[in-house]
Amino acid sequence: MNKATAYQQVQAARSANKISIQELIDGLTEDFFELHGDRQRDDDPAVIAGLATIESRPITIVGIQKGQDIAANQARHFGCATPSGYRKALRVMRQAEQLHQPVLALINTPGAYPGVEAEYQGQGRAIADCLLAGQKLKVPFLSIIVGEGGSGGALALACGDQVWMFANSTYSVLSPEGYATILWKDSQRAAEAAEQMRLTPKELLADGMIERIVPEVTTAADCGELKGAVAATLKMLAAQPVATLIKARQARYRKF
Amino acid sequence: MPQRKFQAPTEYQLAARKDQIPDELLTRCPVCQQDCYTQDLTELMICPNCDYGFRLPAWQRIRQLTTTFEELDAVVTVPERFADTAYREKIKRAKATTGLNESVVTGLATLTGQSFGLGVMDAHFMMGSLGSATGEKITRLFETCTAKRLPVVMVTASGGARMQEGAAALMQMAKISSAVVQHRDAGLLYVTILTDPTTGGVTASFAMQGDVVLSEPHALIGFAGRRVIEQTIQQTPPADFQRAETLLENGWLDQIVTRPQLRLTLARLLKLTSGGPSHE
Ligand SMILES: [Zn+2]
């Protein structure tokens, strides 16, 4: 993969063979209890949330997921969360705070859902609220970009104390196709755009945007090493006084 | 060969002639599509027919909203590390046309004896896009106002995150949010005034984080762009789906305030809030 071009990296991040967030949760946790609904009006299947244990310690999980087949993918609008999805995330983040347990965010999204209803339901405000909540969350918060990390829709859950990326993932302000369209009026130049955008884990690590690149995991059975790393990091973060934790997190984002 | 009666002017001659013609006599309102005499727009730059507020240069807005204004961080500009030639060229042009160093002007203001921090975005500077320097100026404004225990007012006008700066532009949304959280935790007031257009990553961060959110009539406010939505749903969204009036109806705004009323409204609002527990 060392010689892979940036656009090959984009394709690998989007691959249908990517481990699903559900399978990843199964591999990382001993028991997962799913929580549904934003408690306001809806339940967005693009956002998966729930309670689990990792090495016997309770955690809260929130993820943005694509579907593994066409039907599931359509139900989850290809991993694009609606305002209701972000409000579900917000709800479980607050619950985690109440229960004093860390939050693990697992992200695979091309971006927040672009639709008329989503606009009516306050897509901008929903993401803005997640950003505020992330910056003051009183519990350890680890964000992992598993596949695509698309713009504000990914950032909403990528405000952790640390942000990690899978080896085959990307994180960017917009898609390479969007970048090429806006800048050169030509979506066919996406590969060229990807080269310019510094969206690969290696570039983002070098730029100080993320803390760690995680070796690619393809099945739940593969998750042992990642599970150990997640558990150790959450434990390390949990050992800090809350004020120290929040101060360090805010300093992390201040340096940009 | 007959003599040509008319010699087409060169581009240079055209430009020179244009300089001698007074500003366009008529201006078309992009909302109601009516032509109105440019002089009728007045210093406020509003459509006399429908109250739409035309996009304002930052300093014109500042004059309209303040009694005094002391600018902060005027020299903060795009960091050298963004070295792409095409991007540097765009920045150079934006600086030349606006006289600004970035898409936002920030400072400490007073209005009817009340002090507050004010940030005004300017859509004429690269569509008011949110770059690292924009984010830095806004973050510092919040930090200054948290330390001085002052309310913050942000007037937004932006196409969203500045894609030429990549992930760094995205991170500004989190950085500013962090500063907003600390200002909020200090018990201080944050007011946003959303103007045409406020979209993308700016809507999805500090524009929508105000304790009180105001807007001007007919302002375009939204997250996703109309074209992106059209491609996704294969339908044409209603004409007004991202207009301020629709957002007010759906519960995302507190009030729509016409530009002539904005100054007075802001003064009232600052008086109606105590400004935190240890405010003198
Ligand atoms: Zn009009």
Please outline what is shown here:
Chain A has 256 residues and is of the alpha/beta class. Chain A is built from twelve helices and eight strands.
Please, could you describe this protein's structure?
- The complex is a heterodimer of chains A (256) and B (280).
- Chain A is α/β, with parallel strands linked by helices.
- Chain A has one domain (6-254): 2-enoyl-CoA Hydratase, Chain A, domain 1, CATH 3.90.226.
- Chain A has helices spanning 6-14, 21-28, 70-75, 83-99, 116-120, 123-136, 151-155, 176-184, 190-197, 201-206, 224-238, 242-254, and strands at residues 31-35, 47-54, 57-64, 103-109, 141-150, 162-166, 170-172, 212-214.
- In chain A, strands 1, 2, 3, 4, 5, 6, 7 and 8 form an eight-stranded mixed sheet that branches.
- The longest helix of chain A is centred in the middle third of the chain and has 17 residues, at 83-99.
- Chain B has 280 residues and is an alpha/beta fold.
- Chain B has a single domain (56-274), classed as Alpha-Beta Complex (2-enoyl-CoA Hydratase, Chain A, domain 1).
- Chain B has nine helices and nine strands.
- Chain B has helices at residues 11-20, 58-65, 85-98, 132-148, 167-185, 200-203, 226-233, 244-249, 259-271, and strands spanning 26-28, 35-37, 68-72, 104-111, 114-121, 152-158, 190-198, 212-215, 255-256.
- In chain B, strand 6 (152-158), helix 5 (167-185) and strand 7 (190-198) form a beta-alpha-beta unit.
- Chains A and B meet through helix 5, helix 6, helix 7, helix 8 and helix 12 of A and helix 4, helix 5, helix 6 and helix 7 of B.
- Bound molecules: zinc ion.
